[in-house]
């Protein structure tokens, strides 16, 4: 009999049938919304908690605390409950109501602050008291390890070793770091492409961090190319994915898909995989799909 934790990973890899500019270039989406918590963040959340427990980092009586923009918080709230751990999640006040309510449904305490940087500072200050264990996804090697041991191998297996380009949105950078390390070990010619927001754009789940907040797990040598995507491009692509491909996902997925399509337009042949980070129903209270029919 499987437990809920056993259902994390082994998500579907599906081909987009309408967006590719030529038949010799195939574009696939890794549907991470099929994880039990609804996003790619189930993988690192599970690894960070189980490995911290195995090492004895979480002492009896300690609560967990973490800064999150949403999906990691939902995953941590779900998995903390399965391990009977208390958790406080610190989020920007701009986070969608769906995210807050989902975390609270799992029994988490949710604290809203003015920005993601402020959330990280708040979590670090409370962890310094010794009463909380901060998982710190931005510096925790278990974040990238989850993708090195699961996401990367799944993509390699499910493309029958034919992948030529891997595209991922960049937030904590755990997904792109872990997948890059694994895929490059299999075939150094695979191109690793990161998606970042263009200047002045705000895309939930994708960040271009100030130097002081750059994730410590990030190694720029593991990324072959950075593509900047505007908020408008990410929005249009999220709507196109739903309307043309039947893939209902959030804005960060729209950003990664837009970057994948840009790569597809530049090559004559190849197999591109991008990460579809979560599901679109997490954004129904945001403006993302307000004008989807227009």
TrEMBL record:
Classification via Pfam families: PALP (PF00291)
InterPro entries the UniProt entry points to: Cys_synth (IPR005856), Cys_Synth/Cystath_Beta-Synth (IPR050214), CysM (IPR005858), P-phosphate_BS (IPR001216), TrpB-like_PALP (IPR001926), TrpB-like_PALP_sf (IPR036052)
Enzyme Commission identifier(s): 2.5.1.47
Keywords: Amino-acid biosynthesis, Cysteine biosynthesis, Pyridoxal phosphate, Transferase
EC category: transferase
Signal peptide feature range: none
Catalytic activity: O-acetyl-L-serine + hydrogen sulfide = L-cysteine + acetate
Family matches, as Gene3D superfamilies: 3.40.50.1100
Binding site for pyridoxal 5'-phosphate: 71, 171-175, 252
Modified residues (N6-(pyridoxal phosphate)lysine): 41
Coiled-coil blocks: none
One GO MF term: cysteine synthase activity
PANTHER family to which the protein is assigned, alphabetical: CYSTATHIONINE BETA-SYNTHASE (PTHR10314)
Protein name: Cysteine synthase
